[in-house]
Amino acid sequence: MLQRLVISLVRIVTNTFFRRIEVVGLENVPGSGPAIFAGNHPNALMDGWLLTAKCGRWPLHFLVSAKLWNYRMLVPVLNACGAVPVYRREDHDGVVDNQGSFDKLYEVIESGQCVGIFPEGISHAESQIVRLKTGTARVALNIADRGKISAPIIPCGLNYIHRHRFRSQVLIEFGQPIVIDDRWLEDYRQDEQATVVRLTGHLSEALRNVTLNAPDWKTLRFIQSARRLYKPSSKELSPSQYVELNRRFVDAYLAEKDNPEVRELQEDVENYQSRLDLLGIKDHQLRSQVTPGYAFRKIIVRCLTMLALLPLAIPGAILHLPVGWAAATIGERFSYEMDDIATLKVFATILLLPVLYAAIAIFVGLTFGFWWSIATIAALTLSFFASVRLMEAEAGLFLSVISVFRLARLGRDVEDLRETRANLVNRIRDRVERKADPETKRIFTDRDFSD
Q: Is residue 240 in a domain?
């Protein structure tokens, strides 16, 4: 029962935090039997939650840092999720013994269940996949060598549009399974270490195929700026289209980065972006003229939205405030490291919210009757989501007011930037048109570019 509660809460958290979660390649996930989900690791705890909520298999046992078992409040949840503790060398002065952890992992896989591993070892904020640890390949090969069962490795790409932004979007892409067949097994038995390294390299390449990678953040920033300029304003991108378009731009840039024309274009785009940053405005605000009447109507609509949500949101905000305060206090006071603070806050929230809802429902049920307690649970849930929508409306209203003010105050600078933008748009689209592979399916049509 605790397992079902945990998975339900994980789905609620992920679907609340992200406005849109798109899943691609779910057909590559086997419907039954063991599997090893191997994903990139750009967003700490959220990576595991997203895979748990969206991979289509349950239970999904994760290798988790053993230090989390130091937090007593987490132990029941970790055990309910079937998490397997692993000891990191950096946490134990380079001396660890993970044989027990691997034995537990083998037991889970050989019972026909699935495990999740992040081969990069730690969560990071790099612009590309970092060097993988060999543990994932070693586990898959050793399982096959034991002869009881074989588990394919499923590459999992977690691509966040804005990874830390509330109500953002994310693409989860599952790649082709890496099957440990007789050939892999024969090579492993002949040369264990070399085969582990080769399989790790194969997995690294598979992960690169389902993630967005750039040599450095400077390059990625240029690519994203160029992609924004290229994209027609009338066309909205899904997360999968967003990632695919960025991949194509990265590949094209790396192929021609030494071309003088490309270097000049990159310099001009970076200068344009720097001017935007200096003035505190966004590229999308320059795509079309915004009249005072249009801006005023947009602000009014957002104000009315806030007013409509306010009666529903206020009770939820008042009731959830103690939970937020308690979660923040637990995270700050009981964490051993800075990286654990966010983890503890989220776990505390997940544990405390059901307790709060249950306590209120029991009080109402004892006072007014069973059906009133059910209505209270529904009202609390509705109020929670109204609070989320209210926060979105508040953020939108703030941005609208600031944008109107800046665009009005920076009249001449804005017009100059619009001219610069139009020039860059034409240059980027012309180059893409000249260099695009005619065999590659286009994301946009000629009609899309009529804006």
A: yes
Confidence (pTM): 0.80
Same domain, 360 and 244: no
Length of the chain: 451
59 within 8 A of 3, measured Cβ to Cβ: yes
295: nearest Cα among 422, 406, 415 = 406
Q: For the chain, give the mean pLDDT.
A: 84
Reference 7, options 75, 57, 71, 69; nearest CA is 57
Q: Please give the Cα distance from 133 to 121 (Å, whole number).
A: 6
The sign one gets for the Cα dihedral 381, 385, 388, 393 is: negative
- Tell me, what's the pLDDT at 80? 74
SS3 153: strand
> Rounded to 5, what percent of the chain is helix, strand, coil?
65, 10, 25
Burial (0-12, 13-18, 19+ Cβ within 10 Å), 261: exposed
Q: At what angle do helices 370-409 and 411-435 cross, to 10 degrees?
A: 100
No. of H helices and E strands in the chain?
14, 7
- Whole-angstrom Cα distance, residue 375 to residue 45? 33
| Number of domains making up the chain | 3
**Whole-angstrom Cα distance, residue 417 to residue 426?**
14
Which pair of tokens denotes residue 214? 């750039």
451/445 Cα distance (integer angstroms): 12
Same domain, 115 and 231: no
- Examine the fold and report which residue of 208, 238, 259 is the final residue of a domain before the chain moves on: 208
Write out the residue range of the structural domain in which residue 317 sits: 292-409
**Looking at the structure, do residues 275 and 353 belong to the same domain, yes or no?**
no
SS3 category, 62: strand
Instruction: Give 2-29 pLDDT, tens digit per residue.
Output: 667 777 777 877 887 788 899 999 999 9
Half-sphere exposure (CA, 13 Å, Cβ side) for 128? 17
Are residues 427 and 402 located together in one domain of the fold? no
Asked if residue 350 and residue 439 are part of one domain, the reply reads no
